[in-house]
Specification:
The protein is 19% helix and 36% strand. With 197 residues, it is α+β, with helices and mostly antiparallel strands.
Length: 197
């Protein structure tokens, strides 16, 4: 259990929640909100799947369609991540810098995904493209089907990884006895301080 008065333990606990979120699809941290700003200066937020959190490198990894408008909104820019764990009563607000990778480096992550999970990258149009009616965007021949490796191969060109280099974690513990909040920043190592909730 997390000692509420120990900043290093709280930071370690925050990373433990993130690591579990990347590994456990049932964890509420598995689907955080990722927020950015578009070319018009408007906020954009979306739920994404956290694939991995690495405290040693202070990074988060997520997957996305390389054709998505969010790629331009995120690549090389500041990003915010919001996650909440109801059982722990902990909210994590994370800031960092995003980068998008599509080259050969991400081939291993592509291979780790199941063919069924890779199927969404077969969508015929980039995300956000207007359609004449409701549609998954997938070609009719693959709707509801488990693709073969040969069928899924062309989708690799649409696959990208989103990496977030975490620079700050705002930890908030909600409690009837009184909320507690700490902010951690990474500048030549992590340092934390208590702040008013």
């Amino acid at each position: 259990m997390r000692p509420d008065d120990d900043l290093p333990a709280i930071l370690a606990h925050a990373w433990t929640l993130l690591v579990r979120g990347g590994a456990d699809r049932k964890s509420p941290i598995h689907t955080p909100v990722i927020a950015s700003v578009d070319a018009d200066g408007l906020p954009q937020a979306r739920v994404m799947v956290l694939r991995k959190a690495d405290p040693a490198t202070s990074t988060l990894r997520l997957h996305t369609d390389a054709r998505s408008p969010k790629v331009a909104q995120l690549d090389g820019k500041p990003v915010a991540v919001l996650a909440y764990h109801p059982a722990e009563q902990v909210q994590l607000r994370i800031t960092g810098t995003a980068r998008i990778l599509t080259d050969d480096v991400v081939d291993g992550y592509w291979e780790q995904s199941t063919p069924f999970a890779r199927r969404c990258y077969l969508a015929e149009h980039p995300p956000g493209t207007p359609l004449p009616g409701p549609s998954s965007g997938l070609p009719a021949w693959i709707e509801g089907q488990q693709p073969t490796l040969e069928q899924i191969a062309p989708a690799r060109a649409n696959f990208a990884t989103l990496w977030i280099e975490v620079t700050a974690i705002d930890w908030l513990h909600l409690a009837n006895s009184g909320h507690r909040r700490a902010v951690f920043r990474s500048v030549d190592g992590w340092a934390g301080e208590w702040v008013a909730p």
